[in-house]
Specification:
With 150 residues, this protein is of the alpha+beta class. The chain has one domain. 35% of the residues lie in helices and 23% in strands. The protein has a four-stranded antiparallel beta sheet. It starts with a helix and ends in a 15-residue tail after the last strand.
Length: 150
């Protein structure tokens, strides 16, 4: 009887541990995207105003998690110059893009949460750009993150 009790306690710890580790690893994936974008040196005449990351169901309602990282820039350079600058310096394994803040709703989609589009800045979007990237899941941890099932 004692063996069965120990067995069930171990099963409970394993399930809880898997869920917690999935949540932690998935948040780290999103944070690493944000950090990688912040680590790219900014071009002349450009400053980073803010950065953000999130793991979860961001723009989709079907199964699966998404991993997103972004930085908000204010720059004297144009969109084309910023896009080519960041594309030439994008970290390995990260496919980034640069968009104009005023076009963020159109480019990132209507379902993108306002905080991830830096919407608080949309009232004065002059010379503001978003550099963003989506990340890839790390199996098996992502399977245990309950956010992908809600």
């Amino acid at each position: 009887m004692k063996f069965i009790r120990i067995f069930f306690v171990l099963i409970i710890f394993a399930v809880v541990g898997a869920i917690v580790s999935g949540f932690i690893v998935d948040n780290m994936i999103a944070s690493n995207i944000e950090a990688a974008l912040n680590d790219i040196p900014v071009p002349q005449g450009t400053t980073i105003e803010a950065s953000i990351s999130k793991a979860g169901k961001i723009t989709t309602t079907d199964g699966g998690l998404q991993f997103y990282g972004a930085i908000l820039l204010q720059s004297t350079q144009g969109l084309g110059a910023l896009r080519s600058y960041y594309k030439s310096r994008q970290p390995e394994g990260i496919d980034l893009d640069v968009i104009n803040l005023k076009d963020s709703k159109l480019m990132l989609g209507e379902n993108m949460p306002d905080d991830l589009r830096f919407s608080y800045r949309e009232s004065n979007p002059s010379n503001c750009y978003i550099v963003y990237a989506w990340g890839e899941p790390q199996l098996p941890f992502t399977m245990f993150d309950i956010r992908s099932y809600t």
